[in-house]
């Protein structure tokens, strides 16, 4: 398992979470391909984080899955805009942190566990 963290991206965390939910559990190669064609700003950053996590573990993109993709809120830049009669209104410019974990596919181990369980139940039935 390998990880990647991109911090202080000038993007609202709620907007980025919509994209992050779409790609959890997907193959990394398929996730990067689908993110490439999304029109959202956050798709580019999440694709960058996935490719970074894949290369951090020195894997190939087709042999790993996106185990988790989490978007946390970062610091908020606070600005003011002048309004009528000498007053001001606050403008919030949120940032976000994108955390991606990728994990290597292990299909063979899962298949052997299933076959062992089925043989154990078969043996118990034969004894009775």
């Amino acid at each position: 398992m390998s990880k990647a963290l991109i911090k202080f991206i000038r993007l609202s965390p709620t907007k980025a979470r919509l994209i992050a939910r779409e790609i959890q559990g997907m193959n990394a190669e398929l996730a990067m391909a689908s993110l490439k064609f999304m029109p959202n700003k956050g798709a580019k950053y999440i694709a960058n984080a996935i490719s970074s996590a894949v290369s951090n573990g020195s894997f190939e993109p087709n042999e790993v899955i996106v185990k988790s993709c989490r978007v946390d809120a970062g610091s908020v830049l606070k600005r003011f805009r002048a309004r009528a009669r000498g007053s001001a209104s606050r403008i919030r410019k949120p940032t976000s942190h994108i955390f991606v974990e990728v994990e290597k596919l292990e299909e063979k181990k899962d298949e052997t566990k299933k076959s062992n369980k089925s043989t154990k139940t078969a043996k118990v039935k034969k004894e009775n």
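The mean pLDDT is 88. The first strand starts at residue 2 and ends at 9.
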